[in-house]
Structure formats: C-alpha cells, structure tokens
Amino acid sequence: MASRIYRPPSVFSRLSLYSLDPPFWASVSPTLIKTYACRPLLKDNRIHFPPHIPGQRHPVIFLIHGGGFVLGSPSMDDAQAHLLATKGYIVVSLDYSLARFPIPHRDLAALIDAVLADEELLPIMDTDKVVVSGFSAGAVMTLVMAQLPELKNRIKALVPIQPLTDWSGSLRDPTRGRNNAWGGKEKLPIDQPTFDWAYISAGVDMHDPLLSPAFASREAIPQPVFFVTSSDDSLCDEGAFLARKLAGKEGGDFDVTESWETDTVRYECVKDMPHTFMHFWVQPKGEAWQARKKEAVDDMWETIVAWLDRILERDPKS
C-alpha cells in the first residue's frame, strides 16, 4: 500500500518560470508526495496534478532528476514538473537510490510499475499515454527504461534532455564547451571522474546498452524520442550520435549543432548553452545572456509539449 503526504496545489505564478530573483523553483510544490511499498526507503516521489475536469484522464510523464547518480533529488525538478502539469499532464518525479549501476534503474522500473498500478491515480491517469523524461543522469535512465522488457511496450514516448549515452567517452569531443560565449565554465568534465567512480564498478562492460545507451539498437529503443542537447555541452556529440542511430541516419559527416526531425526522432541542439542550461543553477553572466537563456528554455518547453501532444494524439485543449 502506498503512503502519501498531501501538499496544497500550488497556484501557477505569473512570474517567469526561470526568474532569478527569487528562484521560481523554490516556490512550487507537488500536489502529493508518495512512498510505494516496493521501495519503502524512497520516500520523495513527487506527483504534480494538472487542472482537472471530472471524468477526464491525463497522460503521465515520469520525470527523472540528474546529478550524476551521486547528487540530487526529485525536488530539483519541481518547476519543470509544475510547468508540464499546467499543460495537462500528470507528472511524477521519481526518487531513486544514489548508488552504483544497476541499482538506480531497478528502483525506477519498480516505481514506474507501482505508479501505473496506483488505485488512487488510476481514475485520472491515462496509462496508454506514458512518457519518460529526465535530465543528464536522468536522461540516461530515460533511455534505459525504454529498453526494459517489463516497460518497453508501456512507454509511448521519450524525452532525454542532455543525456550521457557513452560512459566510455569514445563519442565525446574533449574540446566542446571549453571556449563558450555565455560567461561560465562547463563543469561536467571536471566532475565526470567523480561520477564514474561512484556509479561504475570495476569490470563493468562500458558498452552495455543499459549503461551506455549509445550501443542500443533501434529495436531495443523502439519509442519516438525527442533529444535535447546544447552546443556548449560536453555531452552534445554522443547525444547527436544516438539520435542519428535511432533515426537510421548513421554514417557520413554531420553537424551536431544542427537540429532536425524524422517521423519518430527529433533532435534539438540549443546554440551556445551549457550542460543543464534548463535548470536554475546555470546563470549566465549579464542581462542579455540571462534573457537569451530564458527565451531558449521557454521555447524548448513549448516545442517539447507540442511534440508530445502530437505523438500522443492529444488535444492540447483537453
């Protein structure tokens, strides 16, 4: 049986989602925080309800936080989850153990299964329209969830945002993000050795698709996918590689900073932005760059929601 803590539904602020003073993320709360019997120690599963019309059922987005499998919590994504909820989605930000591979993906798979069977949510949840999305480490797990036999046929769309797809680093451009225009430094290459040490045990096959999704086939990841990268992100190249692979566009020269779309794969690269640019802790220097970041983030969420509505054949007015 699931336990829960009620939170009062937050009122959608007229302030910008990415206002820096005060940070908007601190002012929004989930509708519910629940614990599920399958993972009783993971108590911070944060559920954001959309505006609801009696008798209506809503698609579900499972949101997976980043932090290199070492840091972070679902609360980091409250602003993003709240925004998606205002667009008509039930958003479930999942908790998981900050532990070595493959413990986190086992946690997440069990929790997704538990949420989809939650009798409290079933009356308003459309379990035929399930999306998984995540940021950075959460984007890796998004691509892992898609491959699991128990979930593959239940997940209808994926939105990995700035994923690491190759833990071996063979697809990475070591110079990307070093000379950026936005006024900060790309920190991921500095932190990556710590993440590697914490997440990967000695002897693990770095080409295991459940660790490095770049080595998964299209048959292993069959869902429509919307990739988000950015040109000053050190992970940009490996995200672009997997997107092209899943779209059947392997081989030849290509520009990883150019966006494109096929029937089932969309690839968007945001110019001149770093890793995790869609979160509050990336604050470009100067008003012009702050405004540019806000515009890029707002445009990206609008584009993602429109794509999901189309893929799920959902009326955005519902």
Task: Produce the secondary structure layout.
Layout: E1 3-6, E2 32-35, E3 45-48, E4 58-64, H1 78-86, E5 90-94, H2 103-116, E6 125-135, H3 137-145, E7 157-161, H4 188-199, E8 225-230, H5 236-246, E9 260-261, E10 265-270, H6 287-311
Parallel strand pairs: 4-5, 4-6, 6-7, 7-8, 8-10
Antiparallel strand pairs: 1-2, 2-3, 3-5, 9-10
Brief summary:
GO terms for molecular function: hydrolase activity. The chain is α/β, with parallel strands linked by helices and 318 residues long.
Give a description of the structure:
- By secondary structure, the chain is of the alpha/beta class.
- It has a single domain (3-311), classed as Rossmann fold (3-Layer(aba) Sandwich), CATH 3.40.50.
- Helix content is 25%, strand content 17%.
- The longest helix is centred in the last third of the chain and has 25 residues, at 287-311.
- The two termini are 31 Å apart.
